[in-house]
Amino acid sequence: MGLVDSAIVRFLPAVPKPLVRRISSRYIAGEDLDAALRVVRRLNDEGKLATIDVLGEEVAGPEEAHAIATAYRDAIDAFERGHLESNVSVKLTGLGLKLGYELCRENLESVVQHAADHGNFVRIDMEDSSTTDDTLRLYRELRESGHENVGIVLQARLKRTLQDIRELADQSPNVRLCKGIYLEPPEIAYRDFDSIRASFVQALEELLEGGSYVGIATHDEWLVEQSQRLTSARGLAPDEFEFQMLLGVRPAMGNELVRAGHRLRIYTPFGRDWYAYSLRRLQENPKVAGYIAADTVGRLIPGRNGVS
Ligand SMILES: Cc1cc2nc3c(=O)[nH]c(=O)nc-3n(C[C@H](O)[C@H](O)[C@H](O)COP(=O)(O)OP(=O)(O)OC[C@H]3O[C@@H](n4cnc5c(N)ncnc54)[C@H](O)[C@@H]3O)c2cc1C
């Protein structure tokens, strides 16, 4: 990322919300379930799977957390009705983790049980490091109480991840492996690009060695190549792992993976609480300054469309 882009990233929270919304619209399926279902159908038609994220991380009270759990159950029903290939990704803060562990557990279990009743699967997203212990604990509790249709996310950025993989090994966990989006202190996290990549490869090796089904979640070409190397060296069949990418990020690369015969799942967020998610995506967009400039110029000079 260039100097201008990193400066813009620091000032993103000061960028007016309508502008953030316009330039981040490609990362969000829409505000309601119907819009998300249309995107899932299109992805399925392109040979891709989906996972739906109901946006909403800063719930103010138990009712909002219940409403998010209900929205997930509704989405699962809609996938079944529409014969859509999609599972769900939940954020524990959205299900009330910061309001109370038990409240969150009840909401999560209701979604996981509903998914099981409909032959579906729930991925628990991983948030910042203040939630890692609780997230892993809740995951283990669910698995130990008999729920099989639930998976976890591990972040290569965190130094603890290899140890977490070893501690989870008895569960043969279904894991989404990603770099990790949250900027964490250097005591607990790798900060430089190459160390995060190395940690990703090592974590993937350990997970495959332990027989885990892995969702390899990255848009980093080098990591995709390393993952293809590791999975084919093990002779894994196409249905024994999957690649995962975010809606609106490097779609051409995703098409390439599908053409090569890989399973690809697209993370598809929808909802009215689009702001925090959009900021994180823009922070990762290497061309963020260009997009902001194009949008602004597009609005100042009539006849230009702004963002492509
Ligand atoms: C399916 C999925 C689920 C995820 N779930 C979680 C989670 O639960 N917890 C968590 O902490 N993180 C999650 N992440 C985010 C992840 O941790 C990374 O922050 C993110 O994927 C960027 O890392 P990268 O591996 O793509 O590599 P990068 O090096 O960041 O990106 C590689 C290249 O992809 C392109 N790119 C990346 N992001 C963008 C963007 N926003 N806009 C345009 N181009 C872009 C750029 O060309 C960049 O050079 C998830 C990612 C995916 C794909």
Q: In angstroms, what separates the terminal alpha carbons?
A: 20 Å
The number of E-state strands comes to 8
Radius of gyration from the alpha-carbon trace, in angstroms: 19 Å
Which ligands occur here? flavin-adenine dinucleotide
Q: What is the helical fraction, as a range of percent?
A: 40-55%
Mean pLDDT value: 92
Globally, the shape reads globular
The number of distinct helices, counting runs of at least 4 residues, comes to 12
- Stretches where pLDDT falls below 50 for ≥5 residues? 302-308
Tell me the strand order in the biggest sheet.
1-2-3-4-5-6-7-8
Biggest β-sheet, characterized? 8 strands, parallel, barrel
The portion of residues forming beta strands comes to 5-15%
Strand-pairing-aware structural class = alpha/beta
H and E order: HHHEHEHEHEHEHEHEHEHH
Description:
It is a single chain. By secondary structure, the chain is of the alpha/beta class. The protein is built from twelve helices and eight strands. The chain has helices at 3-11, 17-24, 33-45, 62-82, 101-117, 132-144, 161-168, 193-209, 221-233, 251-259, 275-284, 288-300; strands at 49-54, 86-90, 122-124, 150-155, 175-178, 214-217, 241-246, 264-270. Strands 1-2-3-4-5-6-7-8 form an eight-stranded parallel barrel, surrounded by eight helices. Strand 3, helix 6 and strand 4 (150-155) form a beta-alpha-beta unit. The longest helix is centred in the N-terminal third of the chain and has 21 residues, at 62-82. The chain is globular and about 55 Å long. The model is unreliable at 302-308 (pLDDT under 50). It binds flavin-adenine dinucleotide.
